[in-house]
């Protein structure tokens, strides 16, 4: 009897969707209605998915799915669609099945947002035809810079055992229009191209295909040596070319729509064409030739920093800009948004405005390597929008994002980190969307449409990235992170024998005169890599935007800022402001309790607690350390430090570059 009662309680809980608010359903939380009418006579795996999504989730007028042709549809490209109210019906039209699937998710999104769906007249076309996630997943299941558990790909179990999450992952991506996935780390193991692994990759590709999601692989440039036992990987060597051609043929025999390769070459110890005195273009083009007959592409990364100049921020430009115009048309140069490395704030990489004859794509980092891992609430759309304020979206061919998903139940660790996966997909589809619009969509689908929740939380989300900048690295400071894990502050960090440009003092240049890296014409002149109009603005202390001040200038401690405060005071107030903002987020979240299920409420509250702790840690560490140089007092209304510098200098977190710290590891005042 008791057992029967228990079973029915459990069952009841599930049907009401009560017990399932663990974040696993992401923004796709439609409760089954089970009775919508779908008209579509055609059958295919993709259309069956679209039909079943509507049948299960839609609660409105009958929907028909129609493959269309004609000028209007041709102009929407292979993935665009229309959604229109016609008579008492809703018609979704597209030239392709995947377009109909995208239209389906769009319609369901409107319903979940409680939008008016009575008079629909929607036309959509993606800005980029390539919208790609980059997984930095290793074959041993760890994820470089991944903070939500282990890899989703269970390589040991594949190809025989298939996790249900593979399909859920594809569905989530399709729902926001992501159409490509690079499965493995850019620091690539040659093993991924072995016959055994390709069988596993094929299984994933088969599961993803109906969702319009293509598979790509990161490749190690020396694979012909490691796997093929050749004596060289020289891209101009005929045996090397032959090896790649054969390998590509093998891949396409298993995966006919394989997307292509992503390559990190001659960067951070990875092999590449420069090992043989060949250029990046020669290396990329050799692979591109092999892929060309099958329609595959090469995404060749420009994340390089060989010490050609003493300023690391200039190095990628110096290496790649001279190659402009030399890449084949199925090569896309993949460039990180900033010239250094995914910092909380960077100016855009000047390569974007200087490679006029090269296909380029931007690489954003969705995983929060430098923004508090999955412990901090940091909504990244405002950061990506800032990039598009400088770089015209139509000067790029594609968008890539380093994924933040792992095998944790809620995929991303922090429930709010899901919004970054979502926002990446939405912006890759339409970079003109605002951060607010995307936050609004995501909040309504992921939590509730109640305006008492959506209003305040949208504000929190949109303020959150700036808060991180404030408490970690305001006014253009950058890369003052702890060695290795990039989580906490270590502006004092010195490691005997390390490259200077891996150490914080190289970046902040604090001395008794002032703070910041002089990249103006009196310093490294990195400003000259920007177009003249911007060069002039960044170069002058008077016109340089203050958010980039210490990126481009070494500024005296007593320099008067626009606010009338000295640089030192402004720095103190910025750190203080960061701390106060996080406290504000905590207060808002406390008021949100009535609108959120207990499980997600607790998860977010716990992580905000850590973020609050870390904001104070950052503020105290940086201000107390920089004070040694400024020799100036903290303004009286800035919160008093709770830590001692000496204690903070001893902190060493016991984490590697694929873990997030837990509360008990963090320093205590
Ligand atoms: C840095 C990461 C490192 C990556 C590298 C890259 O710290 O783990 O391998 O970028 O993008 O941000 O290749």
How does this model look, in words?
The protein is of the alpha/beta class. The protein has helices at residues 2-15, 45-57, 71-75, 97-112, 164-175, 195-208, 223-226, 238-254, 280-291, 312-320, 381-390, 418-429, 435-446, 451-472, 504-508, 532-539, 549-552, 567-591, 598-630, 645-649; strands at residues 38-39, 63-67, 81-86, 89-94, 121-124, 130-134, 180-182, 214-219, 260-263, 297-301, 331-336, 360-365, 398-402, 514-515, 555-556. The chain is built from 20 helices and 15 strands. An 8-stranded parallel β-barrel has the order 6-7-8-9-10-11-12-13. Helix 8 (238-254) packs across helix 9. Residues 1-19 have low confidence and may be disordered. Beta-D-glucopyranuronic acid binds next to loops.
Unreliably modeled segments: 1-19
Small ligands present: beta-D-glucopyranuronic acid
Radius of gyration: 26 Å
Helix percentage range: 25-40%
Order of neighbouring strands in the sheet with most strands: 6-7-8-9-10-11-12-13
The largest sheet, given as strand count, sense and whether it forms a barrel, is: 8 strands, parallel, barrel
Output the number of helix runs: 20
Distance between the termini: 54 Å
**What general form does the structure show?**
globular
How many individual β-strands? 15
Strand-residue proportion: 5-15%
Structural category is alpha/beta
Summed over residues and divided by their number, the pLDDT gives a mean of: 95
């Amino acid at each position: 009897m008791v057992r029967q009662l228990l079973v029915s309680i459990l069952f009841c809980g599930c049907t009401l969707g009560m017990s399932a608010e663990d974040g696993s359903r992401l923004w796709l939380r439609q409760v089954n209605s089970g009775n919508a009418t779908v008209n579509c006579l055609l059958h295919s795996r993709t259309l069956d998915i679209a039909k079943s999504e509507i049948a299960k989730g839609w609660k409105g007028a009958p929907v028909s799915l129609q493959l269309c042709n004609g000028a209007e549809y041709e102009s929407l490209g292979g993935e665009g669609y229309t959604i229109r109210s016609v008579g008492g019906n809703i018609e979704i039209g597209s030239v392709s099945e995947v377009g109909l699937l995208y239209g389906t998710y769009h319609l369901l999104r409107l319903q979940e947002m409680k939008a008016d769906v009575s008079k629909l007249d929607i036309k959509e076309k993606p800005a980029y035809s390539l919208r790609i996630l980059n997984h930095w997943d290793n074959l041993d299941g760890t994820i470089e810079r991944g903070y939500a558990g282990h890899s989703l790909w269970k390589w040991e179990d594949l190809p025989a055992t298939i996790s249900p999450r593979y399909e859920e992952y594809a569905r989530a991506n399709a729902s926001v229009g992501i159409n490509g996935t690079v499965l493995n780390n850019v620091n690539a193991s040659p093993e991924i191209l072995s016959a055994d692994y390709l069988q596993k990759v094929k299984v994933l590709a088969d599961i993803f295909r109906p969702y319009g999601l293509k598979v790509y692989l990161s490749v190690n440039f020396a694979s012909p040596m490691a796997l093929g036992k050749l004596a060289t990987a020289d891209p101009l060597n005929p045996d090397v070319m032959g090896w790649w051609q054969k390998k590509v043929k093998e891949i396409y025999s298993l995966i006919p729509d394989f997307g292509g390769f992503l390559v990190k070459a001659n960067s951070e110890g990875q092999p590449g064409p420069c090992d043989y005195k060949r250029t990046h273009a020669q290396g990329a083009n050799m692979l591109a030739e092999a892929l060309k007959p099958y329609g595959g592409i090469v995404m060749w990364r420009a994340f390089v920093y060989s010490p050609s100049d003493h300023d690391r921020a200039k190095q990628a430009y110096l290496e790649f800009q001279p190659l402009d115009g030399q890449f084949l048309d199925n090569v896309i140069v993949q460039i990180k948004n900033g010239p250094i490395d995914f910092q909380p704030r960077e100016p855009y990489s000047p390569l974007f405005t200087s490679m006029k004859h090269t296909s380029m794509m931007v690489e954003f980092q969705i995983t929060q390597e430098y923004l508090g891992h999955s412990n901090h609430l940091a909504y990244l759309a405002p950061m990506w929008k800032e990039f598009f304020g400088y770089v015209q979206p139509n000067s790029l061919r594609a968008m890539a994002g380093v994924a933040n998903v792992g095998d944790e139940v809620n995929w991303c660790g922090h429930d709010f980190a899901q919004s970054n996966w979502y926002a990446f997909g939405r912006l890759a589809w339409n970079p003109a969307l605002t951060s607010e619009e995307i936050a609004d969509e995501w909040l309504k689908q992921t939590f509730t449409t109640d305006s008492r929740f959506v209003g305040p939380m949208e504000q929190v989300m949109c303020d959150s990235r700036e808060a991180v900048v404030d408490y970690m690295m305001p006014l253009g400071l950058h890369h003052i992170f702890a060695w290795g894990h990039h989580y906490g502050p270590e502006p004092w960090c010195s490691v005997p024998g390390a490259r200077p440009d891996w150490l914080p003092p190289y970046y902040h240049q604090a001395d008794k005169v002032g703070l910041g890296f002089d990249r103006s014409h009196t310093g490294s002149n990195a400003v000259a890599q920007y177009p003249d109009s911007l060069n002039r603005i960044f170069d002058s202390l008077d016109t340089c935007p203050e958010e980039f001040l210490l990126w481009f200038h070494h500024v005296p401690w007593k320099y008067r800022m626009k606010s009338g405060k000295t640089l030192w005071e402004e720095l103190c107030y910025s750190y203080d402001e960061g701390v106060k903002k996080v406290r504000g987020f905590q207060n808002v979240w406390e008021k949100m309790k009535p609108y959120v299920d207990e499980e997600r409420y607790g998860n977010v509250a716990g992580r905000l607690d850590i973020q609050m702790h870390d904001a104070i840690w950052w503020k105290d560490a940086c201000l107390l350390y920089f004070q040694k140089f400024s020799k100036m007092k903290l303004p009286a209304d800035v919160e008093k430090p709770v830590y001692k510098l000496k204690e903070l200098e001893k902190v060493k977190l016991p984490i590697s570059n694929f873990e997030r710290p837990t509360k008990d590891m963090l320093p205590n005042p």
